[in-house]
Design a protein that fits this description.
Largest sheet: 3 strands, antiparallel
CATH topology of the largest domain: Nucleotide Exchange Factor Grpe, Chain A, domain 2
CATH superfamily of the largest domain: Head domain of nucleotide exchange factor GrpE
Order of helices and strands: HHHHHEEEEEE
Shape: elongated
Strand content: 15-25%
Number of helices: 5
Strand order of the largest sheet: 1-4-5
Length: 188
């Protein structure tokens, strides 16, 4: 005899199957809404990732460009001493000695002058430019003032003497020009 209160395996399976069917077929509007939220989140992640990649690309391009421009900075700074010494050597040959010199000595001096010009042009090819501040306004970003000279004929703050030329590479100062600045004239 079968007890009507007995929920046999058939009734339990039917109840589980019914609840499973409900889980398998949830409300389509809720599913759609969840998918739209997930889609929105994924779009946001994608856009952020694309923006990050674009920023990384720009930053990398700038770093590569800076490396091309400023990669020779330490080498160029070391070479400035050579350029200064070559210029000093030529500047210390008096004009009278040049005029009376033998042809071999004249050729040596001309060769040194040619070497100096060639070296300066090679530095320029790599972005190193010589500053020529004489007669210009003193700029503490480009010049180093070593002394002041009283001179009322030029405005105060004018570079009146260059002790050592300065150099820039790209937009950066490689070595500031060491200068003497006027004092006592009209305001610049």
């Amino acid at each position: 005899m079968i007890d009507p209160a007995d929920n046999g395996p058939d009734d339990a399976d039917a109840t589980q199957a019914d609840s499973g069917a409900r889980q398998e077929n949830p409300d389509p509007f809720i599913v759609l809404e969840n998918l739209q939220l997930e889609n929105t989140g994924l779009k946001d992640k994608l856009l952020r990732t694309l923006a990050d990649m674009e920023n990384l690309r720009r930053r990398t391009e700038k770093e590569v460009a800076d490396a091309k421009i400023y990669g020779v900075t330490s080498f160029a700074r070391d070479m400035l001493t050579f350029a200064d010494n070559l210029h000093r050597a030529l500047a210390n040959v008096p004009v009278e000695v040049r005029a009376k010199a033998e042809p071999a000595v004249k050729s040596l001096i001309e060769g040194l002058e040619l070497t100096e010009r060639d070296f300066a042009s090679r530095l320029e090819r790599f972005g190193v430019k010589k500053l020529d501040p004489l007669g210009g306004k003193f700029d503490p970003n480009l010049h180093e003032a070593l002394f002041e000279l009283p001179d009322e004929s030029v405005p105060t703050g004018t570079v009146v003497q260059v002790i050592e030329p300065g150099y820039v590479i790209g937009e950066r100062v490689l070595r500031p020009a060491k200068v003497g600045v006027s004092r006592g004239g009209p305001k610049g």
